[in-house]
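Below is how a single chain appears once it has passed through the pipeline. First comes the sequence as given, then the structure the pipeline wrote out for it. We keep one example in the README because the format questions we get most often are answered faster by looking than by reading.
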Amino acid sequence: MSKLYLAVGSLLTHTPDEDPEEYEDERARLADMSAWLADEGIDVDLLSEPGREVWQGEIAEFAHVYHLRVLAAHLGAGRDIAPLKVNRLPKTETPDALLSKIWEGNTASPYEHLINHTLTDGFYLPVEFESPIWGQGSDDDEQESVVSFGSAMALQRELAQLKAALDKEQIAPRHPAYVALVTLAAAAQMSVTHRLPISIWE
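Resulting structure:
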C-alpha cells in the first residue's frame, strides 16, 4: 500500500531568508523547468510566492486512484462498469487493457489529464493546456526520472464530469475511488483558486 500526499503551493518551497543556498538551488531547477515548459508552449510562473502552501491532502492508497482511472477509462468509452463497482479491484500484474490503450495513445479518453499522468512525482499547473506533457526530471541521486505535467483547470473539469457519471452509476460516496476523486477535486479547486501548482508524491 502506497499512500499519496498532495499539496497546493509554490514549487519554490524555500525562501531566501530560511535557507539561501537551498533557495538558489531550487530556483535554478525551477527556472530550467519553466524554460522547458515554455518551449512546450506552456507559459507558467514557477518562481512566485516562495514558501507559500495553501492546502494539503492525502489519498489512502495509490490503488484507489488506479481504480478511479479504470472507472474513468470505461465510462469514457461508454462501457458497462458493473463489474468494476467493487470496493477493491483484484490484484494483478497486468494493467487494465483499456487503460493501457489510453496510456499507449491508441485510444482517446475524455479524462486525459486524470489518466495520462505519472501522478507521483508529477504536477498539475494552474494554466490551460490541451494534453498532459512528459519530460525528464531528476531524483535525489541525480538519476533521470520521468515527470509529467497536467492542467489543474482541465483536471477540475474532468473530475466534475466523472463525478456526475459516478453519481449516475450510483457509486457510493464512501467508495475508495470516489473518495480519491473528491480529494483530487479539492486539490484542483485550490490550485485554480490560488493559481498555485499541485504536487503529488508517495
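The radius of gyration is 17 Å.

See the next section for the split statistics.
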